[in-house]
Design the sequence.
């Protein structure tokens, strides 16, 4: 029977196991540059079959929180080169998550204090995190965005493509497009944030257009099998809402099937919360989503995420509901998560106070498990 600890061929990339480190925002990259300790952080976690980095802004416009990393300066790319070298030296594999936050940003993070951009000028009910001139961090409401003009969209597609090229040049094994959690591409998908009446709003095919154009451009740049995508069909994160997620996301994955994706990464339920969270009238049918992708010819790996433990992850693989399982929060405090799961060692609890921002504490100081626990 398939196990989490079996190797996996991800479109030619040999993964040592089927455990994925999910993207985790840690806000430790001043000026969007990953510092030296970030290489240590990811290297400590290199026994994961695959690491997906924290969300990484493709442009300054795409940045929405203080001290998240980017892919848009030479200095940031040099920082990432240290990360990919360190992970590869430990035998790991790593892809970078390409992120544009859209309306989930604040004027103080944007060039010249400009408004963040969005499908429509609708403010997200939610907060972002900024650091003021005195170095004081705090949560503030997201700023009122401006609607993107239709002739600006090719430029955004191009920004994704350029970031994908830069990522490969920095040594990443591939990229993951962040299509989840209420950020730009998810904003275009959903009726709660998209009230456009042009070719990018209205019917499902229009709302999915930008995401599929981005996928087309990024896969053209990386070649087949080097681009994954993360989707969160029902999460309410960052004020994401759509009354009919099932047909919307089935349309999206059918479109993805044409693109030689390496994997489809699905957050089941509310991100970091209830797995059976529901938007719209019916419970979301994830089996139907996967079936729609396969029916349309999609051959990428199916990656699932949200609150899995050893037993539920093994069950997901054994039943064929997933090829890969991504673990988020456990990776903050268990750098050797693969070994702990394999050997039945206890998992360490993470310290919430150091999730976002700060230095080495709560970042690179979680130890590996000591010794083996003998079975009773
Ligand atoms: C937590 C805090 C800030 C951003 C996401 C990139 O939800 C994030 C994020 C998570 O995808």
Sequence:
């Amino acid at each position: 029977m398939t196990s989490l600890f079996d190797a996996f061929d991800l479109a030619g990339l040999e993964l040592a196991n089927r455990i994925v480190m999910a993207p985790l925002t840690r806000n430790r990259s001043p000026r969007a540059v990953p510092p030296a300790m970030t290489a240590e952080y990811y290297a400590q976690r290199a026994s994961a079959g695959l690491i997906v980095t924290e969300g990484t802004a493709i442009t300054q416009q795409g940045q929405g929180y203080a001290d998240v990393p980017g892919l848009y300066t030479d200095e940031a790319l040099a920082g990432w080169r240290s990360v990919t070298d360190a992970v590869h030296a430990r035998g790991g594999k790593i892809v970078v998550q390409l992120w544009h936050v859209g309306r989930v940003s604040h004027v103080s993070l944007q060039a010249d204090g400009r408004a963040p951009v969005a499908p429509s000028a609708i403010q997200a009910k939610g907060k972002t995190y900024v650091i003021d001139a005195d170095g004081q961090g705090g949560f503030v409401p997201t700023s009122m965005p401006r609607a993107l003009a239709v002739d600006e969209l090719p430029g955004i597609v191009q920004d994704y493509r350029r970031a994908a090229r830069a990522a490969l040049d920095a040594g990443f094994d591939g990229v993951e497009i962040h299509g989840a959690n209420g950020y730009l591409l998810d904003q275009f998908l959903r009726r709660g944030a998209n009230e456009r009446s042009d070719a990018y709003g209205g019917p499902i095919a229009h709302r999915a257009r930008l995401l599929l154009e981005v996928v087309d451009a990024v896969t053209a740049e990386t070649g087949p099998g080097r681009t994954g995508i993360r989707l969160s069909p029902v999460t309410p994160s960052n004020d994401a809402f759509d009354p009919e997620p099932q047909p919307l996301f089935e349309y999206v994955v059918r479109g993805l099937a044409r693109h030689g994706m390496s994997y489809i990464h699905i957050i089941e339920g509310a991100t970091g919360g209830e797995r059976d969270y529901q938007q719209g009238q019916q419970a979301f049918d994830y089996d139907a989503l996967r079936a729609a992708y396969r029916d349309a010819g999609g051959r990428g790996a199916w990656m699932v995420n949200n609150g899995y433990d050893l037993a539920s992850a093994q069950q997901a693989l054994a039943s064929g509901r997933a090829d890969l399982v991504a673990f988020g929060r456990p990776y903050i405090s268990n750098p050797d998560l693969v070994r702990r799961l394999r050997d039945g060692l206890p998992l360490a609890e993470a310290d919430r106070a150091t999730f976002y921002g700060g230095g080495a504490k709560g970042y690179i100081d979680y130890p590996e498990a000591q010794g083996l626990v003998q079975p009773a």
In short: The chain has eleven helices and 14 strands. The pocket of 2-Phenylacrylic acid is lined by residues 25, 55, 65, 180-181, 237, 271 (CB under 6 Å).
